[in-house]
């Protein structure tokens, strides 16, 4: 709809107010899918700040409250949004999931799925750097595994940080099967870079 061009003309506070007025954080998921498809067609593209605000308003509450796998509508909306605005999405959503205390099993599975199937290589590297900024936990090991599963060539500084983190954390994961799998994956995927 032509009315959506207003999203490009709002200040951040106006956009937050508009999202609140439209109740985007609680709108029905089928509408969410339609709204995200409209965002893809928007020209010019949203600014980074506007996309980050929309990522937070549209998805943050929904993702953090997941207690079972996301519905197909929510997955379709997430995939659609990530296809064009993956960088602001990762900055907002991945950061929030990483800081969330507790197991967060559904959130972890969702992050793995997004890394494996939706995100562009530069966004996968962003996810890796975000994971390495927080203390490593059992919950985050599958996310690192998903990043390595993409078979992307990692920048040397990021690979060094990953190896250093795994070495430092080894005593804490002495009995972890996920940790053992992750180390094996690093040695397999990055063998030309790891001495």
TrEMBL record:
> What species does this protein belong to?
Dasyornis broadbenti (rufous bristle-bird)
A Gene Ontology annotation in the biological process aspect, one of them, is: interstrand cross-link repair
Q: Which Gene3D superfamilies match?
A: 1.25.40.480
Ranges for domain Fanconi Anaemia group E protein C-terminal: 1-194
Protein name per UniProt: FANCE protein
Q: Which GO terms describe its cellular component?
A: Fanconi anaemia nuclear complex
Q: Name one Pfam family in it.
A: FA_FANCE
């Amino acid at each position: 709809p032509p009315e959506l061009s207003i999203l490009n003309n709002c200040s951040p506070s106006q956009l937050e107010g508009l999202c609140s007025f439209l109740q985007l954080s609680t709108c029905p998921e089928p509408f969410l899918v339609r709204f995200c498809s409209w965002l893809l067609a928007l020209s010019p593209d949203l600014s980074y700040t506007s996309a980050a605000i929309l990522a937070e308003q549209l998805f943050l509450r929904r993702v953090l409250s997941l207690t079972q796998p996301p519905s197909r509508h929510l997955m379709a909306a997430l995939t659609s949004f990530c296809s064009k605005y993956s960088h602001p999405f990762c900055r907002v959503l991945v950061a929030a999931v990483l800081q969330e205390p507790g197991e967060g099993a559904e959130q972890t599975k969702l992050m793995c799925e997004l890394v494996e199937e939706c995100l562009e290589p530069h966004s996968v590297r962003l996810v890796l750097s975000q994971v390495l900024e927080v203390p490593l936990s059992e919950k985050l090991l599958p996310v690192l595994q998903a990043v390595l599963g993409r078979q992307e060539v990692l920048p040397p500084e990021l690979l060094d940080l990953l190896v250093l983190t795994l070495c430092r954390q080894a005593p804490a994961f002495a009995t972890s099967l996920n940790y053992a799998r992750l180390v094996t994956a690093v040695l397999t995927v990055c063998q030309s870079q790891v001495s």
